[in-house]
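Convert to structure. Protein one:
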Amino acid sequence: MSPPRWRLLGPGLVVAATGVGGADLVATLIAGSKFGYALLWCVVIGCILKIVLVEGAGRYSLATGHTIYVGWRSLGVWTSIYFGPYIVVWGFIYGASAMAGTGLALYALTGGWSVSGWGIVSGLIGLALVWSGRYGMFEKVLAVLVGIMFVTMVGAAILTTPNLGEVLAGLVPTIPEDGLVNVLSLAGGVGGTITLAAYGYWLREKGWTTPRFMQVMRIDNTMAYVVTGIFVVATLIVGAELLYSANIAVSTGDRGLLDLSLVLEDRYGQWAGKVFLIGFWAAAMSSLVGVWNGVSLMFADFMANLRNKSEDDPEAQAGGIWYRAYTLWLTFPPMIWLLMTDQPAWLILIYGVLGAFFMPFLAITLLWLLNTDRVPREWRNKWLSNSLLVLCTVIFGWLAYDQARTALTSFFG
């Protein structure tokens, strides 16, 4: 039997594009504005770490024929106790923030209506695009959005005419004074949280379901994060050239991208600001549509397993009852949150604490799954995979501690 053919467009690009949202771009911009190119090497490390995590999730799914949640459940009930509340709370708050991000971009582009109004429209469009669960159409939509965001951000980087010598110097690992938090955050923030674990589900939707697809999966995953790495490097270049040299600060969160569009408009003309806003919208919309599909697949698998259904049961599939229930959960309750002026602090606390621990949770469970007889011997971890997953655990564990401490300190004063 001939080996399966690989194409540039695949689940890897979907998971990478879904994971790079407005907040990731702003964190990279701020790093560039504070330290110039000094943290460029962190982007490379971040891409390598995400390749390792996503490859591990994909390898488990292809080697065993099971979803990652089935693997987690085999480790004990504690995984469900953590994952159940997390996916419910995360979905509610992420739904609001994703719609706010797309709404902000469209409001800035059009100058009319309101951020929340455009956000609600974006949520409804995302719901319509994924409702049927048809992966082929979903993948094509993501491809268009990735193309837009890539061209606009790389174009903005080229426009700034970066200093190539300084860019290459940034690949030498150094930690600027007071820059440790930025180092770890940037290394950990290149594309994705819970969507990394969705990779195995997208492999299944693509029809890549057996070890025969292992090599294709690895190429797909690596190339996707190479594209993501170029995109994030371009973002850092824009921050370094436009903001660092001029000592300009931008806001945190999605609003920082709006600030950058104004800087581009002031420096290069109105057209540059508008084109960048289109890229900002594409980045926000790709994350929204990707989550509406991928995390809904994870929730469907979670609920079907709790009801002792197999992962092949219609309840666990795209377009099934639980898949559609979660897409509705992502869309409609968060609209109320989006329109609220007072947001309950306790819910933000739960979201912050549960969310902080997902990446170390993923790294630790992959170490456990891929070093035991839950996976055929030939597909278990080798020393390099184990070393990198341990590094992921240390980095994401430190970030989890820092985020949880910050959330608790904020809540309790």
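Protein two, convert as well:
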Amino acid sequence: MSRAFLIVLDSVGCGGAPDADDFGDEGANTLAHIAQYCAAERPSGGLKLPNLDKLGLGAAVRIASGEKTPGLNEMPNGLWGAATEVSNGKDTPSGHWELAGLPVPFDWTYFPDTEPCFPSALVDLVRQAAGTEGILGNRHASGSLIIEDEAENHIRTGWPICYTSVDSVFQIAAHEDHFGLDRLLDLCRAIAPTLHEMKVGRVIARPFVGNGPWERTSNRRDFAIMPPAPTLCDAVQGAGRQVHAIGKVGDIFSMRGIDTHVKGPDAALMRHLQDAVRDMPYGSLTFANFVEFDSLYGHRRDPAGYAAHLEWFDGCLPPILEAMRPDDIMIFTADHGNDPTWRGSDHTRERVPVLVAGKSGEAGLIAFSDIAASICTHLGVPIIGPGRSFL
């Protein structure tokens, strides 16, 4: 009679990863630094997330890192802890796969921070698949900034804008009208197998519109490498249960183990989550990702915007939590950090909070893969991966 909801607040880390220094991120702490920013900059004081804090958000930050969290001081009434990743990365596939019981068993390929950064054979592949004489970009960049830099050249030449980051990604930005959305998706789909053979985690289509200012649209599509082994989604689906994906989760798992999926901006995804809590059958798993914490505020180093989005999310929770059935659990967590007060514009290596509505107690410091094991235990399906249930 139980159901499980796994909700990933993309990039909402809580500091304290023991190997953060290996990634140049020692001291990064997404949640603590946003809370401290709010306490310093707002006349009304710190970060206000009463619903997540009652589940244990402030306590999770403190157990993960010991940092002060102004505004997050509630005594938890949920089951709470903080999770540590073992995969060698701080990116979306690594985080989600490991949350689903599959630590990444290989090292990703990253492109050097040089200009140009892509090998000539890859440039030729993209150029031929796009039917253009060349590409634009060919460097590490923030997606919004490179569009500002290259959009006019893109419209004039018709060449795709190609860029990467410190993560294992190959991203292509193109104008939905001038280049064409279907053409962009076809281009990414055509080159993805070659990038995946290179162990590049994702080819990402980043469509945009406008005539300056430019605006990225919600038609983003991630062409992710197929998980090399079964995940939580496969375990639940294999037991004859339904798996519903919200947001980019279907893309991250290449739709393997996924029965149904819906996408859209975070406001639409919140409505889809409400629908799922109302409608999903007993025994099901709903796996959601809310991406705008990361894409709109973390990468753009916007702590005020990040704080406002956290508070919007928190304010949406009461009717969702109230609609849960007696045997449901809803786990709120993250896949990595993206401290908006940190240097650069990329993800940060952090522990992540683990907050379980529908249970109570302290899970302590756990592993990402313990989340998959706990959901399997709750749903009564065979445990997938190396994790141990904290329920």
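The chain has a mean pLDDT of 96. Residues 5 and 330 are 5 Å apart (CA to CA).
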